[in-house]
Structures are given as C-alpha cells and as structure tokens.
Design a protein that fits this description.
This protein is mainly β and 935 residues long. 3% of the residues lie in helices and 59% in strands. The strands form 8 sheets. It has a 27-stranded parallel beta sheet that branches. A 16-stranded mixed beta sheet has the order 1-5-8-11-14-17-20-23-26-29-32-35-38-41-44-47, covered by helices on one side. It comes from Bosea sp. NBC_00436.
C-alpha cells in the first residue's frame, strides 16, 4: 500500500510533470505494468489478494476491461491517476467495462490534477465487508478538471461501505447513481467547480444508509433525486452557489426515511417535489438565499407517509402549484414557516390543500407569498386551524386575489403585505388574539378576526368584524366589498388615515357603506366618499356612515370636491353633501351623517337645527342662470333702437321711409338681476355688448304707405358674475347670427315692424367656489321673432306722441354636457314671451344748413312697461330642474336723439329699467349708438 506521503507527493506535483509514467508495486494482476502506456487484454486487479499500488502520472495511460481495486478478502489496493504530460494530455485509466473500488477488501482511487478515469458502471465499496473510497480533486495547470466518467451508474456502498469525495473542482458524471446502495455510503461534493452530473436518477439511501453533503459552491445534477429510497438518506447542501438541480421529480422519504437540509445560500431545483411520499421525510430550508425551487408542479408533504417542511431564517421554497398536506388517509403533512421579523422563512405557492390525512400549518416568523389568484387558498381544511406563533406571519398577495377560510389561532402578528387582496372568511374572534395589520394591498375581512388591527398602508375592507383598530397615515378603511358594513368590535383611533365610503348619494335611505364602532373613537380620520351613481337628493336626517357606540371623541373630516361655508362638501348631481356629527332627531348620538340639507341654526340651546332646503352643488347657480344669460344675447330691440327714427315730421309720413339705407349700431349694457323665482336663490350681474349692422330697402310704396325690408348681421358678448349662497361663478357667452325685418310705414303715422333673428352661441362656464372650469366652448342656438305696432300722433309741427306695443318670443337652447362632478347638464326650457307697452314724446326740428342741405334733428323720451308671460328658463342637473325667472313686471325710461344731415344720420339712446315688484333690486342700464346712411 502506498504511504500517505506518497499520495501527498503526487497531489503536490512531486513526480516529474513531463515524463509519462505508469508505475506499480505489490499485488497487481496482471503485472508488472508497462510504462508509459499499459494496454491490458482482460481485467486489471490492483490488490488481488494482497496489497497493491498503481500510479498513472504525467500523461501515462492504462487500458483494460474490468477494473477492480482490492479484489480479494483482506486485500488492499490503491490507484492514483494524476497530472498531464508536456502536451497537456491527461493521465488516463480507461476501463471498457465496470470499475469496482473495494470488491472484498479496502480500495482507494484518487483522480488528481486533471487525471481522467472512464468506465461503465462504478462501484465504490462493491461487496460485503469491503470498503471503497474515491477522491476526485483539482485541475491541471490549464484548468482542466480531474474527471471520473461513468457510462453507467455509480453505486457508493453497494452492500458495503463507500465514500465518494469530489473536491476542488473535480468532476464526476454518470447515467445514474446511489449513495448507500445496500451499505453505508457517504458522498461529499465540495468547492467551486466541483460537480456530480447524473443524467438519470440519483438516490441517497437506496436500501442502505446514504449521506450526501454538497458545499461551498459545488453542484449536483440529476433527472430525479430521491433521499431515503428503501433506507435512511440524509442530504445537506450548504453555502452560496451550492446547487442540486433535478430536471424531474425530487423526493425526500420514498419507502425510506429521508432528511434534506438546505442552508446558508444553497439551492435545490426540481420539476416536482415530495416530502414523505411513502415513508418519513423532513426538509429544512434555512438561511438567507437558501432555496428549493419547484419549477412546474406543486409540492406534496405527506403523500402516503409523514412529511414535514421547515422554512426558516430567510430560506425560500417556491412551488409552481399548490402545496399538499396529508394527502392519503393515515398520512401526515406538517408545514412550519419560522424566523424573525427581519429574517423570515418564505413559502411561495398558489395554494395550500389538506387531504384525507393529518395536516398542520404553523406560522412563527414566516412569509407566505401567493403566486396565483385563488379564492380558496387554504382548501380542504374544514375544521383544521392555522397556528400563528409568537413571531407571526406575513401574507404577501403579490398582486393576486386570494381567500382564506380556516380559523387562525395564536397571538402572533398577522401582516397583510403586497399588492392584491386577501379575503378572510373564517371566525377567529375567540381563537386569535394577536396584532393584525395591513401594510400594502387589500385585506377584506368578511368573517371575524380577533385581536387588534392596525392599518398602516393599503386598505382594510369587508363586511365582517375586527378588533380595536388604529388607522395610520397612508391607511384606508373601506367598509363593505361594494356597499356594506364593517364592524370594529372595540375602540377606534384615527391617526391621519382615511375612511372610504361607497354610497348611492340620494336621500336618507340611500344604500351606503357604514363603519360600526362598538367602543369609543379618538383622533382624526379623513373621509373620502365614492358616489355609486347616485343622482343626489335632499336629506333630512342624513345618510349614516359612522355609527359610534361609545364616546364619540374622534373627528371625521370629509375630503370633498370643494368647500361650502367652511366645510368640505362632496357633489352628487345637483346636490352637495357635508359630513355632520349627530343626528337631527338624535342630536347627541355621536354618529356621523352625510347631509345635503341646508340647516338653519338651532332656535335655542339644546334644540335641533331646522332643515330649510337642500344644499346645491357649486355649479348649480351657474347652470340655472345659463339660459337667462343666453336670453340676454337673444333679445330683439325696438324699431327706433335698431334703425333710428325714419319719420321726418312732414305731412307725408312715408316720404322719409322710402329709399335705401345701410346702418350699424352698438349697444353696451350693465344689468343686475335678482330673479323673482330662483331654485338656488341665484342673482347675477351681466356686462354685455352687441354690434348689429343691416341694410334696408323699399319693397313696396303706395298711397297708404311704404313697406321696407331689411337684413341684419349681429354679434354680441356677455360676461355674467353669478352668486348664490351655494356658490359663485362666471359665464362668458357670445352670440353670432343674422336676421331680417319687414316694416310698414303708414301715411297716417302708423307703423308695424316685424323682425326675427337667429343666434349661434359659444359659452364658457366656471365655478369660482369650486375653483374649476365647468364647461368650455359649449355650443348653443337661439331664435327670436317679434312684432311692434305704433301710431305717431302729431301734437304740433314739432311735437308728437307715439304709443306703441311690442311682443317678442325668444327661444334659446344649448348643448348638453357632463360637468366635472359627473352630472349631466341640459337646458330644457329656454323660452321667453315678453310684452312691452310704451309711449314716447318726440320733439323734431328741421332746417337747412349753409350749404342748403336738409337737417333733421329730434329728441325723445320714452316710458315702457315690460312683462314676462312665461315661467323662465330651466336647466336640469342630473335630472333635477333648476329654474330662474326674473321679475315679471319691469318699468323703463329712455332718452334718445337723432341728428340727420343729407344722407347721414346719427342716433342713440340711453335707457334704464328696473323691476317694479322690488324697485331697483333688479335693474339694467343700456347705452346705444348708431349710424345710418341713406340714398
């Protein structure tokens, strides 16, 4: 037998590196060896019946059929295959048949420094009472690995004792393998680059006791892996980069007990996983970076045996499918996720299923991460419970929606993390006493969850019950799953979190979320209201959204669309709602209500406030006034205001009406209107101007009079400032169009003027109160036609009176639109029928200037009564009508003048109007000026 010093010398490169060598001594069969290349016809035995050594170094080669080291009982054989020659050719031992290390004696094979051994099947400890050891270690100077190539399987301890060491970058390959194949076998794969590649199944504990340790970045690969196949198998993988890759199934505890420990950053990769398939299996994955990744199927713990999985301290198990526990009757599956809050054991799966056997799940510092949507994430548990230990559990839904129905027990923390939703439906009110919290995503409690609750981030919702709750900044509590009630069985502290209420905003009986708190409230909570299609309505009592059973010291602050009288308000249709504490009929109940009722203060201390009407949204006054503003641009003027006076005071009143003329005029007006009726109590001021131009021509002339026809073009703009207790805003509108007129000038001083016009509108609406634009560039259309009759009565050559009457019908319409609050706005009634009775007193004077031209001048004063016959204009806001009608009866006074010389005439008027029911409360002042050219 070679001494230890001899082996060390070879490993250190002490033999000549360039001289090929095959040397041996002792019991070799056949022998002695030939050097440097020994080709044997037949088998080779090293240590046939005694002690023998063989060294293949520096590129030497040996070839034979069957190779045996330590053949006979009591024999001892040692073979060293090491190094390369000067050309880089490896020292090689080629066995065309099998290779047995320790058939009946003690055998040792060392493959070192780039040496290569090949054979069919390999046996390390090949018979009863024998012992075999194989060491494959290192690389040559060019980095070529020491290699053992097995065209068949490797059996470590084939009914004997066997040890396989793959070290320092050594490589072993086989079609299959077993450690502890009927005997006691140990395998060690250690170091970066060290590997055992099995294209078939690799078993540890195949009807014998087997131990495999893979460490320090070494790798093992196989088709299937079995730990405990008929006997005890134990595997440890340790160190970063250490990996056992199985392209097929990996089983721990298959007809034999098996243990697997993955630690300190090591990994196992498989296509499918079983623990306790038909016997007892135990797997521990521990340490940061340690992983068992199951790529295509799930993981079964206790299929027809007893299985347990412990994932701890940063370890990770990922199953691309569900985890099954206790599948068959009589089997048992145990899952334990444990660790610390900073170093949790992690399981990633799409569900956990309990079969007909026993199933146990304990979370004590673990993290459970969902990989798929699953409404029954814990399926088949029936009355089984989930234990939460002192270090608690984090459930990370990771963007998925999952449901858990079993009962929780224990006092550890339950933390909901990750995007997605976790729905709890079990009753854990009496069995769980820990501190639950929501960090991210949504936790829906539709059952009962005991302990306490803290909403740190994400969202708590549901129709169930939780314990005393703290709502932190960034957290949201949203009762119901659409609309429903969430109960806090205890106290509530709002620490700047949000309460989200879904409600169909309408009257008192509107469907709505509600938060019920059996205990007391404290702190501040911000409330967001999500209207679910409610069109709004006036409330009396209000829509209850928070029910407080104890002391109501907490403050719930609405986050609305705008501020109404110092309070946040949310809009629904035409209405606005504020959040108020205490009921109307129960003024000390401490509950919180959404109210759209406009309240008058209590008449005496302790009495209830009085509801005087609804609160309208801030756009309502603007929408209500919209039709009136368009009507102001659609008015028809009197004949004199349009074209000036065409009578000249001569006996034939038709003389000056004959002929043709073009004219243009401009109006400017300022109005303040306090309507006689307004749904929202709206008043407004209008500043406007209008430019109109036209051409007139004689159509007919006879003894009785002259008929003049004309066409007109016009453009006008109005800007209105609108105010109400419910809001202030502006409307900027313009109208452009054309029209026509027919005027009869009778020879006796009678005239009849019929006119019409068409208007196209463009409008911008904005709310100052809400601080936003309500509509921009909204189109509209209007038309008007009117008839004016008058009779000039001459009092002298210079003075005359003209009683007159006018009736004008005007219609305006506008495109409907949806406002920023989601309400559809439509102008449903834009009609006006206005009558006027007036009388003017005229003074006329005519003369010729120095050039002999006729000069006509006139002054007049006019008094009018105006009356509106219809009911005003109406806009609907989400179907709610808002009507505005000015005072029906107005009076007006005007002063005007005309100066005409030759073909040219200048004319103008100043007019003031006021409502007569509330004198000067509504008024308008208008100035007009025009130029006419006749020929």
């Amino acid at each position: 037998m070679l001494s230890t010093a001899f082996v060390a010398l070879v490993c250190a490169g002490g033999l000549p590196a360039r001289a090929q060598s095959v040397t041996g001594n002792g019991d070799l069969n056949p022998g002695p060896p030939n050097s440097p290349n020994w080709a044997i016809v037949g088998d080779l035995r090293v240590g046939d019946t005694g002690t023998g050594q063989l060294s293949i170094t520096a590129g030497g080669t040996v070839t034979n059929d069957l190779g045996i080291i330590a053949y006979g009982g009591g024999s001892n054989g040692t073979v060293i295959v090491s190094g390369v020659d000067g050309s880089g050719n490896a020292s090689t031992w080629t066995n065309t048949s099998d290779l047995i290390i320790g058939q009946s004696g003690t055998g040792s094979l060392s493959i070192l420094n780039g040496g290569v051994v090949t054979n069919q099947a390999g046996y390390v400890g090949g018979g009863g009472g024998s012992q075999g050891t194989v060491t494959v270690s290192g690389t040559d100077g060019n980095g070529n690995a020491s290699t053992w190539i097995n065209a068949g399987d490797i059996y470590v301890a084939n009914g004997a004792a066997g040890t396989l060491n793959i070290l320092a970058g050594g490589r072993v390959s086989s079609t299959g393998g077993a450690v502890g194949a009927g005997g006691v076998g140990d395998a060690l794969v250690s170091g970066q680059g060290s590997s055992w590649q099995s294209s078939g199944r690799l078993s540890v504990g195949l009807f014998g006791i087997g131990t495999l340790r893979v460490e320090d970045g070494a790798t093992v690969s196989s088709l299937d892996g079995i730990v405990g196949s008929g006997a005890q198998g134990d595997v440890v993988l340790t160190g970063a980069g250490t990996t056992w890759t199985n392209t097929g199934q990996f089983t721990v505890g298959s007809f034999g007990p098996g243990t697997l420990r993955i630690e300190d950053g090591a990994s196992v990769i498989s296509n499918q996983g079983y623990i306790g398939a038909n016997n007892t299996g135990s797997v521990t994955v521990t340490g940061a970076g340690s992983r068992w990744l199951i790529s295509n199927f799930g993981l079964t713990i206790g299929n027809d045996g007893t299985g347990s999985l412990t994932v701890e301290n940063g370890g990770l198990v990922r199953a691309n499918g569900r985890v099954e526990l206790g599948v068959a009757a009589g089997s048992s599956g145990t899952l334990l996720l444990q660790g610390t809050p900073s170093n949790r054991g992690i399981l990633e799966t799409d569900g956990i299923w309990a079969g007909a056997g026993a199933a146990s799940v304990t979370f004590d510092g673990g993290l459970l991460r969902a990989t798929w949507d699953n409404s029954s994430f814990f399926a088949g548990f029936d009355t089984r419970t989930i234990a939460i230990g002192t270090n608690g559990i984090v459930i990370d839904t990771d963007g998925h929606d999952i449901g858990i129905s079993p009962t929780f027990t224990g006092a550890g923390a339950l933390i909901k993390d990750g995007a997605g939703k976790l729905t709890l439906t079990g009753d854990s009110g009496a069995t769980y006493t820990g501190a639950a919290s929501v960090v991210a995503g949504t936790l829906a409690v539709n059952g009962v969850l005991g302990g306490t609750m803290e909403v740190i981030g994400g969202r708590l919702q549901g129709i169930g019950t939780v314990g005393s709750t703290i709502n932190q900044p960034g957290g949201t509590i949203a009762p119901g799953n659409s609309i429903g009630t969430l109960t806090i069985n205890g106290n509530y502290l709002g620490n700047g979190g949000r309460l989200e209420i879904e409600t169909v905003l309408g009257g008192d009986a509107s469907p709505s979320d509600r938060l019920v708190i059996t205990g007391s409230t404290a702190g501040t909570t911000f409330v967001r209201v999500l209207n679910q299609g409610g069109a709004g309505a006036q409330t009396i009592e209000g829509i209850k959204v928070v029910d407080v059973g104890g002391a109501s010291n907490g403050v719930f602050t609405l986050q609305g669309n705008y501020v109404f009288q110092g309070q946040q308000a949310v809009v629904a249709g035409a209405y606005a709602y504020t959040l108020q504490k205490n009921g109307i009929s129960t003024p000390n109940d401490g509950d919180w209500y959404l109210r759209s009722a406009y309240m008058a203060p209590p008449s005496s201390p302790g009495s209830s406030p009085t509801v005087t009407g609804p609160i309208y949204q801030p756009g309502a006054p603007i929408y209500e006034a919209y039709g009136q503003i368009l009507q102001s641009l659609n008015e028809l003027q009197t004949l004199r205001q349009r074209v000036g006076e065409r009578f000249d005071g001569r006996a034939d009143d038709t003389a000056n009406a004959a002929g043709r003329a073009i004219w243009a005029r401009i109006d400017a007006a300022h109005s303040r209107v306090t309507p006689g009726f307004s749904t929202t109590g709206t008043g407004y001021m209008i500043d406007s101007w209008r430019l109109q131009a036209g051409a007139d021509g004689q159509v007919f002339a006879g003894d009785a009079g002259t008929l003049v026809g004309g066409v007109t073009l016009h453009h006008g703009e109005a800007q209105a400032d609108i105010s109400s207790v419910f809001g202030r805003g502006k409307i900027k509108a313009s109208g452009t169009g054309f029209g026509g007129a027919l005027t009869w000038y009778g020879a006796s001083g009678f005239y009849a003027d019929a006119q019409t016009k068409l208007n196209w509108f463009d409008s911008d609406l904005s709310s100052t109160t809400a601080g936003r634009q309500l509509a921009k560039g909204k189109g509209g259309f209007g038309y008007a036609f009117g008839l004016e009759l008058g009779q000039r009565i001459a009092l002298s050559d210079s003075w005359s009176l003209t009683p007159q009457a006018q009736l004008v019908y005007s219609h305006v319409d506008a495109d409907s639109f949806v406002d920023p609050f989601g309400a559809r706005i439509a102008l449903t009634d834009g009609d006006s029928l206005r009558g006027r009775l007036g009388i003017s007193a005229d003074y006329r004077q005519s003369w010729r200037d120095n050039a002999g031209r006729q000069v006509n001048a006139s002054l007049y004063g006019i008094a009018n009564l105006h009356y509106e016959f219809l009911g005003g204009t109406t806009a609907t806001v989400a179907g709610t009508p808002l009507t505005s009608r000015g005072e029906r009866l107005w009076g007006g006074l005007g002063l005007g003048a005309k100066y005409e010389t030759g073909r040219y005439a200048l004319y103008g008027e100043v007019e003031a109007r006021t409502s007569l029911a509330q004198f000067a409360d509504s008024y308008s002042i208008t100035g007009r000026a025009g130029l006419r050219v006749s020929w």
